[in-house]
Design brief:
Layout: E1 5-10, E2 16-19, H1 25-37, E3 40-45, H2 51-62, E4 66-71, E5 74-79, E6 89-90, H3 95-105, E7 112-115, H4 118-121, H5 126-134, E8 138-142, E9 145-151, E10 159-161, H6 167-177, E11 184-187, H7 195-202, E12 206-210, E13 213-217, E14 227-228, H8 233-245, E15 250-257, H9 264-271, E16 275-284, E17 287-295, E18 303-304, H10 316-325, E19 328-332, H11 345-355, E20 361-363, E21 366-371, E22 379-381, H12 386-396, E23 403-406, H13 418-424, E24 428-433
Parallel strand pairs: 2-15, 3-14, 6-7, 10-11, 18-19, 22-23
Antiparallel strand pairs: 1-23, 1-24, 3-5, 4-5, 7-9, 8-9, 11-13, 12-13, 15-17, 16-17, 19-21, 20-21
The structure holds shikimate-3-phosphate (S3P).
Length: 436
């Protein structure tokens, strides 16, 4: 897709059939970064080739790591020997990319600068700078934002109680901890996704998780391992909600990551009355994988707050769409982290949904939606935020007339092929170039 591409969405018939979604974004970032550190050849299959993860891949190549690309989704990473980068490491729009790589860079005997797009430069970095500095790292930002400058320093393990449940912060600390003297302990206030712990353990790191306390002993050399990336449940969320909302739909998504730290949306949708059948079929990259069958369902409102919020943090834009069609009130609390994602996802969704006639009450840490509401087609803006652009495409399937989602190229930051995948199960979504 090109910079000015938009999605054109029309309502149509029921969604039917079986499909899958691209590889998990979180795991794909980690596969290339941890593979770069591990000694030997890390073979990665079903890797997500998307805007965010390509930025991580390019960064590890700038660090002198040789990568063989057999096809778009299959890589061999020859890891174990990071070299000083030739230039600035550009993570573009990838928050996971910059925060995890910063943790790794703090442990290297050379200096580096990590930067990204204007959007990434607006995102908070103090959350990683402060704990990394406590570990002795020489890392600084510009007003606590990217670009981040890292210089060599001796690191020591710390015990860190995270003020927010964030997998990116947890991972940055654990990755720096690999290079520190003494153990590193991270205490998380909630069950943030645990892909880092799973993958590092598979590569031979000594990491123990007891409840919300994660303890890492430094010193183990990471060994390369084979990684088959499961489908991303955060991408599956869009066809799932589309299947629930479009009458007569019956779709099955296969090969989806069912890691319990990621499946909060399924739990919430079930309490809203969703007809979902989840079947676990095996393991990929040490993560449970399976299929999800979705049938059109009449939804009712729900109260969402507490521990489940972090388990579905990227799914709130699409939950907002579901809530608009649900009978009764949906109240979301404890989700203030949504305000510091690629965009302020509460404000941006509320403002753009208003163009379709929706009424949403914003609160500092969430929103209130009284449903069901009758929406109409409109021209809406994706705000260079992939999950927002895809949420509006799903909303467009449920209203009369033609919805245009401007600035939709960003969908390929996490879900390349979103429009053809949705068309494959019967949705009328296509990409059109806009002449600026
Ligand atoms: C991610 C963690 C989450 C999530 C992001 C991916 C990760 O961010 O929103 O899309 O791969 O670790 P936070 O850790 O900031 O909550």
């Amino acid at each position: 897709m090109a910079a000015n591409d938009c999605f054109i969405v029309r309502p149509g018939g029921a969604l039917r059939g079986e499909t899958t979604v691209p590889g998990d974004k979180s795991i794909s970032h980690r596969a290339v970064m941890f593979g770069a550190m591990a000694e030997g050849k890390t073979e990665v299959r079903d890797w997500l080739a998307a805007g965010d993860t390509e930025a991580s891949l390019a960064s590890i190549q700038s660090l002198g790591v040789r990568v063989e690309r057999h096809d778009t989704h299959t890589l061999t990473i020859h890891g174990g020997n990071l070299q000083p980068p030739a230039g600035v490491l550009n993570l573009v729009n990838a928050g996971t990319g910059i925060r995890l790589l910063a943790g790794i860079m703090c442990g290297q005997p050379f200096a580096s600068v990590l930067d990204g797009s204007e959007q990434l430069r607006r995102r908070p970095m103090k959350r990683i700078i402060a704990p990394l500095q406590q570990m002795g790292a020489d890392i600084n930002g510009v007003n606590d934002r990217a670009p981040l400058t890292v210089k060599p320093a001796v690191l020591r393990g710390i015990r860190y109680e995270m003020p927010v449940a964030s997998a990116q912060v947890k991972s940055a600390i654990l990755l720096a901890g690999l290079f520190a003297q003494g153990e590193t302990i991270v205490v998380q206030p909630g069950p943030a996704r645990d892909h880092t712990e799973r993958m590092l353990r598979a590569m031979g790191a000594q990491i123990v998780t007891e409840g919300d306390v994660i303890t890492l002993q430094p010193g183990a050399r990471l060994r390369a391992t084979d990684i088959t990336v499961p489908g991303d449940i955060s991408s599956a969320a869009f066809p799932i909600v589309a299947g629930l909302l479009v009458p007569g739909s019956d779709i099955t998504l296969t090969g989806i990551n069912l890691n319990p730290t990621r499946t909060g949306l399924l739990d919430v949708l079930r309490t809203m009355g969703a007809d979902l059948t989840v079947t676990e079929t095996g393991l990929a990259a040490g993560e449970p994988v399976g299929s999800i069958r979705v049938r059109h369902s009449a939804l009712k409102g729900a109260e969402v707050g507490g521990k489940v919020v972090v388990e579905m943090i990227d799914e709130f834009p699409i939950l907002m769409v579901a809530a608009l069609f649900a009978e009764g009130k949906t109240v979301v609390r404890d989700a203030q982290e949504l305000r510091v994602k690629e965009t302020d996802r509460i404000s941006v969704m509320a403002a753009e949904l208003k163009k379709m006639g929706a009424v949403i009450t914003e609160t500092p840490d969430g929103f209130i939606i009284e449903g069901p509401q009758r929406l109409h087609a409109a021209i809406v803006d994706g705000h260079d935020d992939h999950r927002i652009a895809m949420s509006f495409s799903v909303a467009g399937l449920t209203v009369d007339g033609e919805t245009t989602v401007l600035d939709a190229r960003c969908a390929s930051d996490s879900f390349p092929g979103f429009a053809p995948t949705m068309s494959g199960i019967g949705a009328d979504i296509h990409v059109e170039a806009i002449n600026a």
